[in-house]
């Protein structure tokens, strides 16, 4: 699943290509909205909200999309070959004289009134990359269920919006706690530090081509520093960057979906997938 910084970058690309221009093509390939035609209307802006993308269009309408695991938006110039996937995976095409935005494999795609956007995103907690970011509210949301495993609490978009599988694993590592440790059992001060670190990491990475959580916030924005970019995510069996112990991997979920989770069994204290 894309992280909040990836969705932010997607929205920025769409905004640059579409905002301020009249649509010359508008094609939604989902049955409910297949007959909608917004050509000649101007795209006003494209705004990310957590992991959602809101494309606001003249006339009080918003195209709401969510990438989930496999969806993507690609932007192409005139005559450029579309490379985002086979034609049957295209769900949306928004074009103007200079650019065409193509949405592939979008599991959520709906046209709604801009005044009704809260129906789609009103359940979200504070957006880590949004103007509504509120660390106090995010902290209170996380601590509202102290028995909940840390990883599940972090990835719940109702608590704070923007954390996916990558940041879940990386934040737990930086907190020296396993993702299965009940969040209420974290040492004093650690929950507050988690919230501030999550915000710092996403802010540091929103303009980077390659996400980095190791030696982050003070580096350049190129993402080209040497060495591993992540502490544990995607590094199963490789030595922990802190202690050298092989990194472990297991699935973690709340019963509705299992998510890949990485941790160091030496550096991170608390229950694990095998003991939970």
Automatic annotation (TrEMBL):
<keyword id="KW-0234">DNA repair</keyword>
<feature type="domain" description="Formamidopyrimidine-DNA glycosylase catalytic">
    <location>
        <begin position="2"/>
        <end position="91"/>
    </location>
</feature>
<feature type="compositionally biased region" description="Basic and acidic residues">
    <location>
        <begin position="251"/>
        <end position="260"/>
    </location>
</feature>
<comment type="similarity">
    <text>Belongs to the FPG family.</text>
</comment>
<dbReference type="GO" id="GO:0140078">
    <property type="term" value="F:class I DNA-(apurinic or apyrimidinic site) endonuclease activity"/>
</dbReference>
<dbReference type="GO" id="GO:0003684">
    <property type="term" value="F:damaged DNA binding"/>
</dbReference>
<dbReference type="GO" id="GO:0006284">
    <property type="term" value="P:base-excision repair"/>
</dbReference>
<keyword id="KW-0862">Zinc</keyword>
<keyword id="KW-0479">Metal-binding</keyword>
<dbReference type="InterPro" id="IPR010979">
    <property type="entry name" value="Ribosomal_uS13-like_H2TH"/>
</dbReference>
<keyword id="KW-0511">Multifunctional enzyme</keyword>
<keyword id="KW-0227">DNA damage</keyword>
<keyword id="KW-0378">Hydrolase</keyword>
<dbReference type="Pfam" id="PF01149">
    <property type="entry name" value="Fapy_DNA_glyco"/>
</dbReference>
<dbReference type="Pfam" id="PF06827">
    <property type="entry name" value="zf-FPG_IleRS"/>
</dbReference>
<dbReference type="InterPro" id="IPR000214">
    <property type="entry name" value="Znf_DNA_glyclase/AP_lyase"/>
</dbReference>
<dbReference type="InterPro" id="IPR015886">
    <property type="entry name" value="H2TH_FPG"/>
</dbReference>
<keyword id="KW-0456">Lyase</keyword>
<feature type="region of interest" description="Disordered">
    <location>
        <begin position="205"/>
        <end position="231"/>
    </location>
</feature>
<dbReference type="InterPro" id="IPR012319">
    <property type="entry name" value="FPG_cat"/>
</dbReference>
<feature type="region of interest" description="Disordered">
    <location>
        <begin position="246"/>
        <end position="276"/>
    </location>
</feature>
<feature type="compositionally biased region" description="Low complexity">
    <location>
        <begin position="214"/>
        <end position="229"/>
    </location>
</feature>
<protein>
    <recommendedName>
        <fullName>DNA-(apurinic or apyrimidinic site) lyase</fullName>
        <ecNumber>4.2.99.18</ecNumber>
    </recommendedName>
</protein>
<feature type="domain" description="FPG-type">
    <location>
        <begin position="231"/>
        <end position="269"/>
    </location>
</feature>
<keyword id="KW-0326">Glycosidase</keyword>
<keyword id="KW-0238">DNA-binding</keyword>
<dbReference type="InterPro" id="IPR035937">
    <property type="entry name" value="FPG_N"/>
</dbReference>
<dbReference type="InterPro" id="IPR010663">
    <property type="entry name" value="Znf_FPG/IleRS"/>
</dbReference>
<dbReference type="GO" id="GO:0008270">
    <property type="term" value="F:zinc ion binding"/>
</dbReference>
<keyword id="KW-0863">Zinc-finger</keyword>
<dbReference type="InterPro" id="IPR015887">
    <property type="entry name" value="DNA_glyclase_Znf_dom_DNA_BS"/>
</dbReference>
<feature type="compositionally biased region" description="Polar residues">
    <location>
        <begin position="266"/>
        <end position="276"/>
    </location>
</feature>
<dbReference type="InterPro" id="IPR044090">
    <property type="entry name" value="Nei2_N"/>
</dbReference>
<dbReference type="GO" id="GO:0000703">
    <property type="term" value="F:oxidized pyrimidine nucleobase lesion DNA N-glycosylase activity"/>
</dbReference>
């Amino acid at each position: 699943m894309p992280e909040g910084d990836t969705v932010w970058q997607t929205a920025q690309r769409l905004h640059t290509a579409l905002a301020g221009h009249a649509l010359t093509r508008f094609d939604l390939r989902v049955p409910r909205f297949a007959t909608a035609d917004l050509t000649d209307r101007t795209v006003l802006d494209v705004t990310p909200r957590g992991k959602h993308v809101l494309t606001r269009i003249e006339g009080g309408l918003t195209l709401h999309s969510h990438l989930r695991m496999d969806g993507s938006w690609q932007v192409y110039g005139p005559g450029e070959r579309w490379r985002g996937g086979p034609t049957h995976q295209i769900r949306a095409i928004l074009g103007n004289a200079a650019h065409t935005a193509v949405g592939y494999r979008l599991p959520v795609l709906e046209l709604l009134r801009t005044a009704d956007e809260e129906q789609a995103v009103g359940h979200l907690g504070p957006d880590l990359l949004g103007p509504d970011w509120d660390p106090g509210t995010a902290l209170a949301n996380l601590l509202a269920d102290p028995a909940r495993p840390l990883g599940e609490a972090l990835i719940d978009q109702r608590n704070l919006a923007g954390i996916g599988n990558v940041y879940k694993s990386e934040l737990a590592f930086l907190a020296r706690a396993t993702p299965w440790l009940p969040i209420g059992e974290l040492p004093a001060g650690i929950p507050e530090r988690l919230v501030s670190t999550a915000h710092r990491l996403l802010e540091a990475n929103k303009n980077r081509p390659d996400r980095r959580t190791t030696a982050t916030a003070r580096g350049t924005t190129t993402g080209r520093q040497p060495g591993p970019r992540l502490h544990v995510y995607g590094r199963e069996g490789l030595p922990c960057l802190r202690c050298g112990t092989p990194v472990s991997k297991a699935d973690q979920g709340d019963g509705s979906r299992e998510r890949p989770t990485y941790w160091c069994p030496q550096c991170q204290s608390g229950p694990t997938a095998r003991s939970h």
